[in-house]
Amino acid sequence: MKKIIRITRIFKFEMAHALTGYSGLCRHIHGHSYQLEVTVSGQPIDMPGHNNDGMVLDFSELKSIVQQEVIAPLDHALMLRSGGDTIPATAANSELFGRIVWTSWQPTCENMVVDFAQRISGKLPEGVLLHSLKLYETSNSFAEWYASDNL
């Protein structure tokens, strides 16, 4: 009997952003303590004696993928949309602005989960699928991405 199981790992990171052209306060550089919930699905390995017997994916493998693709490049970074009103080149070259991540899209929570889904799904091992992402921008505000909505 085929059994599909979902596993989830939670990650936390700090990042700042600004929304270019936005009329509210978020047009200014500000930061968030993000929480990212990553859920993958698959069939647990059914091979007695296999190192990962009974697992869809070792949680440490999932941690490694998300760490490499999302956390390491974005933790304590400033995410900004390229073009438009951006920080002056002199400031961009200073030590204070050493971790700027430029995007072609508005760095909203919604756009970030789409980007994260692309980064993570391509790194998962065969037979393991990205099921969903939930990105908390604050303790009571989040965006969700589901694979089933994006077929």
Structural overview:
The protein has one domain: Tetrahydropterin Synthase, Chain A (2-Layer Sandwich), CATH 3.30.479. Helix 2 links the parallel strand 3 and strand 4. With 151 residues, the protein is of the alpha/beta class. It is built from 3 helices and 6 strands, in the order E-E-H-E-H-E-H-E-E. It is 22% helix and 34% strand. Strands 4-3-1-2-5-6 form a 6-stranded mixed β-sheet. The mean pLDDT is 93. Keywords: Lyase, Metal-binding, Zinc. InterPro entries: 6-PTP_synth/QueD, 6-PTP_synth/QueD_sf. Pathway: Purine metabolism; 7-cyano-7-deazaguanine biosynthesis. Its cofactor is Zn(2+). It catalyses: 7,8-dihydroneopterin 3'-triphosphate + H2O = 6-carboxy-5,6,7,8-tetrahydropterin + triphosphate + acetaldehyde + 2 H(+).
Key features of this structure:
Tetrahydropterin Synthase, Chain A; 34% strand; six-stranded mixed β-sheet; 6-PTP_synth/QueD_sf; 6-carboxy-5,6,7,8-tetrahydropterin synthase; 151 residues; EC 4.1.2.50; 6-PTP_synth/QueD; alpha/beta
What's the helix and strand layout?
Layout: E1 5-17, E2 30-42, H1 59-74, E3 77-81, H2 89-92, E4 100-103, H3 109-121, E5 129-138, E6 141-146
Parallel strand pairs: 1-3, 3-4
Antiparallel strand pairs: 1-2, 2-5, 5-6
Tell me roughly what share of residues is in helical segments.
Answer: 10-25%
The proportion of strand residues reads 25-35%
Radius of gyration computed on alpha carbons:
18 Å
Per CATH, the class reads Alpha Beta
> Main beta sheet: strand number and arrangement?
6 strands, mixed
Per the CATH scheme, the topology name is Tetrahydropterin Synthase, Chain A
Strand order of the largest sheet: 4-3-1-2-5-6
Give the full name of the CATH homologous superfamily. 6-pyruvoyl tetrahydropterin synthase/QueD
Number of strands: 6
Average pLDDT score: 93
Please tell me the CATH architecture by its name: 2-Layer Sandwich
Specify the overall morphology.
elongated
CA-CA gap between termini: 26 Å
Q: Strand pairing plus helix content: what structural class?
A: alpha/beta
What string, H for helix and E for strand, traces the elements in order? EEHEHEHEE
* Count of distinct structural domains: 1
Low-confidence stretches: none
Number of helices: 3
